[in-house]
Amino acid sequence: MKVEGQPLHSHFETLQQQENASTLGMWVFIATEVLFFGVIFTAYVYLRWEYPAAVRAGSLHLEIVLGSINTAVLLTSSFIMATAVLMAEAGRRRLASLLAAITAAMGVAFLVIKGTEYSMVIAHGFFPGAGGGPVPGREELFFWLYFLMTGLHALHVFIGVGLLSGVAFFLRRPRGVSVNAVRNIGLYWHFVDLVWVFLFPLLYLASHR
């Protein structure tokens, strides 16, 4: 398949070789991100194993409705991004651009909802350093992890929104971006969605077992 919008760089012999290297690079990057999040998930598992009452008590104060809405937003955006990749592969660049833009908009919606949830949780006094709670000290550790895990995830969503916006723009330019670049950004977005699929039950459903 012809790869549009992708000049051959001097250190590659063919476009296919260049495309394969780009895809491998994205998978390596995702693997390092999995290791990075894995360390934080391990800390959460330890906290839940040692202090289950504190985790359940902290989880009760999270906004499960907003978390559920954000889950639906990200899962829907992942489907739309997958369709955008298919459209780009089929040469329907304008439609792919529109779908990438919609995905970016849904990422923004996720961040707005997450910001709203942060403000509600903080307004109720449940944040690192606030103290108190039914399980003093240990419950605070839960909120340290909550803000760390969701904050890092939100940062990745923010970066993804920027990448998707760039793709949406350049797909409308003549030979502005390669199909493989669209695929790689799609992989990144699916990874971001997958992280949330794990975060939601671990954090929000810990008190519903």
Number of helical regions? 6
Q: Give me the CATH superfamily.
A: Cytochrome c oxidase, subunit III, four-helix bundle
Report the CATH architecture: Up-down Bundle
Overall morphology: elongated
Distance between the termini: 49 Å
The CATH topology is given as Four Helix Bundle (Hemerythrin (Met), subunit A)
- Count the domains: 1
The largest sheet is: none
> Beta fraction of the residues?
under 5%
Q: What is the C-alpha radius of gyration, as a whole number of Å?
A: 20 Å
Give me the strand/helix succession.
HHHHHH
Based on the structure, what is the oligomeric state of the protein chains? single chain
The low-confidence parts are 1-5
Helix content: over 70%
